[in-house]
Structures are given as C-alpha cells and as structure tokens.
Amino acid sequence: MKIDSNSATPIYEQIYKQLLEYITTGLMQADDKLPSVRELSSSIHINPNTVVKAYRLLEEQGFIYSLLGKGSFVSSKQNVQTKLFLQQINELTHEIVTKSKYVGMTFEQLCQLLEQKWEDK
Questions:
Q1: Cα–Cα distance between 55 and 49 in angstroms, integer?
Q2: Distance in angstroms (rounded) separating the CA atoms of residues 1 and 30
C-alpha cells in the first residue's frame, strides 16, 4: 500500500480507496483477512486511528466485516456493494456528461473515450 503524504486526499481516504480497489478488482476475495490495524499503521507509519477510520468506512458500506478478536475480513455481500456502485456510477455519469457538453465534446467523442478507458482496465 502506498500513501502520498503530500496529497490533498486525506490518508484515511487513500487507504479506503486502495483497499476498495483491491476488493473490487478481485485482488482480495470474500473472507480474506485484512491486515490488523496495528500491522497496517505500523507498515505505512501512520496513526492507528487513521486506519480505523478507513476500515470503519469500508464496513459501513458493506465491503468488509469485523469479528471481535479476530480482525476484519472482505465481505461477500455483493448486493450492498452493487447498490453503492450503481449510485456512484449514476452520479459520476451525470457529472461526466455535464462537463463533456461544457467543453464541447460530441457524444461520439465521449463514447470513444469511455471505450478506451474500458479497454484499459
């Protein structure tokens, strides 16, 4: 995990986004154990409360679950994740279309850009 201390993005959010990417791309599978708060905070040299904040956000959104005394694990509850992603896609699509029109992109240009990004992933 890489943290950019010079970034305007808060550290807890950087952790959240990286773990979310690991989960959504399949790098981490359902029921995989996440590093303990102490392990992760120690390895990236940050306050444990920062890791707790990132884990709490992931848990609130249904991406991970915690078992007292055992740690945090990747959730298999896809329906919560799917609902959240669909909401985010809708919001981002609205923003993308609005900005594309503002800068004068055509629908075809936007589709080409989306297709290119789709193929890159």
A1: 10
A2: 19
Question: What is the Cα–Cα distance from 89 to 48, expressed in whole angstroms?
Answer: 31
pLDDT in tens, the chain (121 residues): 889 989 999 999 999 999 998 988 888 988 999 999 999 999 999 999 999 999 999 999 888 999 999 999 998 866 566 777 788 899 999 999 999 999 999 999 999 999 999 898 6
In DSSP terms, which residues pair with 74 in a beta bridge? 64
Question: Quick one: tokens of 11?
Answer: 């550290």
Give me the helix-helix angle, 78-102 and 107-120, nearest 10°. 140
